[in-house]
Design goal:
InterPro entries: DUF6436. This is Thioredoxin. It comes from Idiomarina piscisalsi. The chain is of the alpha/beta class. It has 2 domains: about 35 residues; about 140 residues, no CATH class. The strands form 3 sheets. It has a 5-stranded mixed β-sheet with strand order 3-2-5-6-7, with helices on both faces. It has a two-stranded antiparallel sheet with strand order 1-8. A two-stranded antiparallel sheet has the order 4-9. The longest helix is centred in the N-terminal third of the chain and has 35 residues. The protein is elongated, with a radius of gyration of 23 Å.
Length: about 180
């Protein structure tokens, strides 16, 4: 009789063990992903600059002085060796295609090649968007989260504004948490 009781208990033990293993594995995975997530603007430099009121004008001047055409343009900012580049590559490609379809202009810039941008871009990958009147529309990351995909995107909805004329409300996105590399 005791053999029957032991056999009945064995499947429950296996189920509990498998459940605990999955729970620990899921916790470990979420812990590792969370360790890789960082704030886009961990030092608060964008918030400080945007409070001064001339962030858009200063950024536009820095880009123009570096030889870029700002009107109706989107600047895709990266840094060589950033571990997050591969995660956002598909999303960046999609944004570039949409910008081209809307008639905007794309520029891909390595932040180490245009050193003046380090003053404005605290982490990469990042995007800077200007409308046809050279008004800053957006400055910040493409998305947030562990994989920075189109599912958590900030920029797709803003692409039609690139062709807009006149003043535009600027969105300085400094509070996103995701896979970013500090500049």
């Amino acid at each position: 009789m005791s053999n029957k009781l032991l056999n009945k208990g064995r499947p429950q033990w296996v189920v509990v063990t498998v459940f605990l293993w999955f729970a620990i594995a899921l916790w470990g995975l979420s812990y590792l992903l969370e360790q890789r997530l960082v704030w886009f603007d961990s030092e608060g430099q964008l918030i400080e600059m945007s409070d001064s009121g001339d962030l858009g004008r200063s950024l536009k001047l820095a880009l123009k002085n570096s030889g870029f055409h700002v009107e109706g343009s989107i600047f895709h900012i990266s840094s060589q060796g950033c571990r997050c580049n591969w995660r956002s590559a598909g999303h960046i490609g999609k944004v570039k295609r949409q910008v081209t379809e809307f008639g905007g202009e794309n520029y891909s810039i390595d932040v180490d090649q245009v050193v003046e941008l380090k003053r404005f871009v605290p982490a990469t990958p990042a995007v800077i968007m200007f409308n046809n009147s050279s008004e800053l529309i957006y400055l910040g990351p493409y998305a947030d989260g562990a994989f920075c995909t189109t599912n958590s995107s900030f920029v797709e909805e803003l692409i039609p504004l690139v062709l807009m004329e006149g003043e535009a409300p600027a969105w300085i996105n400094a509070v996103a948490k995701g896979c970013y590399c500090e500049v």
